[in-house]
Amino acid sequence: MLDCDFSICKVRDLSQVDFSDEFYFIARTDEETSLVCSSKHVPQNAAECDAGWRAFRIQGQLDFSLIGILSEITSALAENRIGIFAISTYNTDYILVKADHLRKALSALEGRGYKIGREGMNAKKKK
């Protein structure tokens, strides 16, 4: 679990992004620039913003050849009608869920044998 409340924003530009924030994710396409940041660091120039998200990280580096890990996790959440916002970096994956669904999400994953901790969620199930 990441100990932070997150917001998902659409920003006009990056001029007001607080790059000193411990966690932030930026995605830019030909249609938009999206920012995921701690809720206390939402830039004033955000065109749209959805607050109230919590995040957890899939613990450990996931090799690009591994298949189905993210799919299995998101399927467990989908079966419990929990919407997600997923982010992948070079080393790992992050799953964001609305804060009011966090306990239900963690229970669903623990029910599938995943171990949840402050450091992140182990991608390998408990035996």
Q: Tell me the span between the first and last alpha carbons.
A: 21 Å
Arithmetic mean of pLDDT: 86
How many strand segments?
A: 8
Tell me the overall shape: elongated
Structural class by SSE content: alpha+beta
Q: What can be said about the biggest beta sheet?
A: 8 strands, mixed
Task: Please sum up the structure shown.
This protein is α+β, with helices and mostly antiparallel strands and 127 residues long.
Q: Care to describe what's here?
A:
- Helices cover 17% and strands 36% of the residues.
- It has 127 residues and is of the alpha+beta class.
- Strands 1, 2, 3, 4, 5, 6, 7 and 8 form an eight-stranded mixed β-sheet that branches.
- The chain is elongated and about 45 Å long.
- It is built from two helices and eight strands.
- The chain starts with 5 loop residues before the first strand and ends in a 5-residue tail after the last strand.
Q: Could you give the topology of this structure?
A:
Layout: E1 6-11, E2 24-28, E3 33-38, E4 46-59, H1 69-79, E5 85-88, E6 93-98, H2 102-111, E7 116-117, E8 120-122
Parallel strand pairs: 4-8
Antiparallel strand pairs: 1-3, 1-4, 2-3, 4-6, 5-6, 7-8
What attributes does this structure have?
elongated, disordered C terminus, 127 residues, alpha+beta, 8 strands
